[in-house]
Design brief:
The complex is a heterodimer of chains A (about 270) and B (about 375). Chain A has one domain (about 5-270): Alpha/Beta hydrolase fold, catalytic domain (Rossmann fold, 3-Layer(aba) Sandwich). Chain A is built from 10 helices and 7 strands. Chain A has helices at about 5, 70-80, 95-105, 135-150, 160, 165-175, 180-195, 220-230, 245-250, 250-269, and strands spanning about 10, 20, 45, 90-95, 110-115, 210-215, 235-240. A 7-stranded mixed sheet of chain A has the order 1-3-2-4-5-6-7, sandwiched between helices. In chain A, strand 4 (about 90-95), helix 3 and strand 5 form a beta-alpha-beta unit. The longest helix of chain A has 18 residues, at about 250-270. Helices cover about 50% and strands about 20% of the residues of chain B. Chain B has a 4-stranded antiparallel sheet with strand order 6-7-9-8. The chains are: A alpha/beta (about 270), B alpha+beta (about 375). At the A-B interface, helix 2, helix 3 and helix 4 of A face helix 3, strand 1, helix 4 and strand 6 of B.
Chain lengths: ~270, ~375
């Protein structure tokens, strides 16, 4: 199996130090477009789409594997191993913060540091923990997603169709940004928003930077503080940027934060 | 729209963000999917969102949004259409579609399972047959190792001894007894090797019943058994200590890895051994393709600052009779370690440390 094709891996940049960018739920590697130019000169940048997102090979989607964030972490580890990447700086947005942490717990020797953009280890409120959402909100998310896929003329989801003879249904997906397969996205949403990975935080051994936005409805201030309290060797940077996608809405500030961290990395630890 | 949402114009403008008007689920999807799309491609058409009224009533809308950038401000122009009735109608279609999809999926799944089951059954039959054959060979081979080959060697040793006793101290006598001694040594070595091979070979049958053990105590037991002052492992990073298996044999594995570190230590450098453990999730299926079940494993890492192993392939290091240094023993140690770990349905991997030295990672199913 060609892992680079499976995950639509793209490598750019003139440097040798690796920065790997992992996209979050709801989009694909295109979301890093405003960030990558600032690092191209000095770094080797590795971009990819998780199986089932963007221009990845949907045929390789396996419900059991991607029914767990560990399956997504395996995507990252397989890409690193097939490209023989070492000393990696991993930038992960949203759910990819958690996926990146899981990958680093399994093979800490591969990574140098983690840059966590709007991380949350658990989105649902639990006793003594404010994740920001109730279970019913997340049920609502599933409903909204269902409603938004009415527009697709596909009667049958491409996942079901993958072995049959109607490739045009899959092709339809590949045309727009952040394109997603309904079935896969539904599963990804479930595994993203219903996972509770709080226990994994203390297992992370490598240093990390947490980028916390102002007024982030998905991963609020309390969540960011919780992550920092439970993550050894972590620093938190409160950004002026609002929302949940600073790398798209406020790329300059995001770039500065990442660059500053990388410059001072040695002194912060 | 404000009437429907039960808000006053003054309450909303400059006070409430658009996303605050959305239901929780809509807000997540808007922020994680639509907003990135809007920022990337400048517009999004026909997005379905649910607004929430002041008293919590849902207000479904279909919207088109365009991003316009004039100098410093991002402005989003949005047009929306209340679609309560249509939404009900669509919900009906959706439910029917979901039911049809579910049925189709289940049907497809059943058909797939059926053919897979048949295939697996065939495979199982073949593998069982193969296993039976290997087992038979195993028994025969074990007999050869433990008896048929030992006996001639014992006799060679015996006769060489007799011969040596009868040698007259003639001119060639010294040379003669030199060769005889060599012969005796070699046969002794071969007998020892054979015995060890036979023990290695028959390990399956000699495994102890699985019990629970404490990793820290096992390491301490291994250290005191080794009784080498330089071996003082740092096990402050043992985050999981509960191990289930053949505890004496797993203790032996720890002992062997530490003994290796000592055997291959760099002269004039104090020996450092660090043993850490962590609970991780790994795919249970390693042989069956495309099967995934992430289950708990205890991951034990033994890291040292020895001269490490030459760059042998990953699996080669654990091969039978592999020797890396002149100081090596018979080349059975790591093979033994691997077999013991394998018999626990675990894995052992060797990695060269970035800072030099060697690092072994042992994964054992976590069975509390």
């Amino acid at each position: 199996m060609d892992i680079l094709k499976r995950n639509n891996v793209n490598i750019i940049g003139k440097g040798t130090q690796v920065i790997m960018f992992a996209h979050g739920f709801g989009c694909d590697q295109v979301m890093w477009r405003y960030i990558t130019p600032a690092f191209e000169e000095d770094y080797k940048l590795v971009l990819f789409d998780y199986v089932g997102c963007g221009k990845s090979d949907i045929g390789q989607y396996n419900e059991d594997r991607y029914g767990s964030l560990h399956g997504y972490a395996q995507d990252i580890l397989e890409i690193c191993n097939v490209l023989n990447l070492k000393n990696i700086i991993l930038v992960g947005h949203s759910v990819s913060s958690m996926i990146g942490m899981i990958a680093s717990i399994q093979q800490p020797e591969l990574f140098r540091s983690l840059i966590l953009v709007c991380p949350s280890p658990c989105y649902i409120n639990k006793p003594g923990y404010i994740g920001g959402f109730e279970e019913k909100d997340l049920q609502g998310l599933m409903e909204v997603m269902e409603n938004n896929y009415v527009g697709w003329a596909s009667f049958l989801a491409p996942v079901v169709m993958k072995n049959t003879e109607r490739p045009e249904l899959v092709e339809e997906l590949e045309e727009s940004f952040c394109s997603m397969d309904k079935e896969i996205t539904g599963n990804f949403a479930k595994v993203t928003f219903f996972s509770d990975n709080r226990e994994d935080l203390p297992k992370v051994q490598i240093p990390s930077l947490i980028l916390q936005c102002t007024n982030d409805d998905i991963a609020g201030e309390e969540v960011g503080a919780y992550v920092q309290d439970n993550l050894r060797n972590s620093v938190i940077q409160h950004m002026k940027a609002t929302g949940h996608c600073p790398h798209m809405s406020h790329p300059e500030e995001t770039i500065t934060c990442i660059q500053q961290y990388l410059q001072n990395e040695g002194t912060l630890i | 729209m404000l009437t429907h949402l039960e808000y006053d114009g003054k309450e909303v403008i400059d006070h409430i963000r658009f996303e605050d008007l959305l239901t929780g689920g809509s807000r997540i999807f808007y922020k994680t999917h639509f907003l990135p799309m809007l920022m990337m491609q400048g517009k999004v058409d026909e997005l379905f969102l649910s607004l929430s009224s002041k008293s919590g009533k849902e207000y479904p809308v279909l919207m088109n949004m365009v991003l316009s950038d004039n100098s410093q401000m991002h402005t989003v122009h949005a047009v929306g259409l209340h679609m309560a009735k249509r939404n009900k109608y669509e919900k009906g279609i959706l439910e029917a579609k979901q039911a049809a999809e579910k049925a189709l999926k289940e049907n497809a799944l059943l058909l797939k399972m059926k053919s897979e089951l048949e295939r697996h059954q065939e495979l199982l039959e073949q593998q069982l047959r193969e296993l039976k054959r290997i087992n038979q060979q195993h028994v025969e081979f074990n007999k050869v190792l433990s008896h048929d080959m030992q006996e001639p060697l014992r006799k060679i040793q015996l006769f060489a001894g007799i011969l040596e006793g009868k040698t007259e101290k003639k001119k060639d006598g010294e040379k003669f007894s030199f060769y005889l001694n060599k012969l005796q040594d070699l046969s002794l070595y071969s007998r020892d090797l054979l015995m060890k091979l036979q023990r290695y070979h028959s390990l399956e049958k000699r495994m102890n019943k699985f019990t629970s053990g404490n990793l820290e105590e096992m390491i301490q037991a291994a250290v005191s058994k080794l009784n080498i002052p330089e071996i003082q492992p740092d096990f402050s990073k043992l985050r999981v200590k509960e191990v289930r298996g053949d505890i004496p044999r797993l203790t032996w594995v720890m002992r062997e890895l530490m003994a290796n570190a000592y055997r291959f230590r760099i002269e004039d450098t104090p020996l450092k051994i660090e043993i850490s453990s962590e609970l991780i999730k790994e795919n249970y299926y390693k042989t069956v393709q495309d099967a995934y079940r992430y289950t708990d494993f205890i991951q034990i890492r033994v890291k040292d600052n020895s001269m490490g192993f030459p760059n042998y392939g990953q699996d080669n290091a654990f091969g039978l009779l592999q020797k890396f240094h002149v100081e090596s023993g018979k080349g059975l140690g790591l093979a033994y370690c691997k077999k013991i770990v394998d018999l626990h349905h675990g894995h052992i991997l060797k990695k060269d440390n970035a800072e030099g030295g060697s690092q072994f990672t042992i994964l054992l199913p976590y069975l509390p």
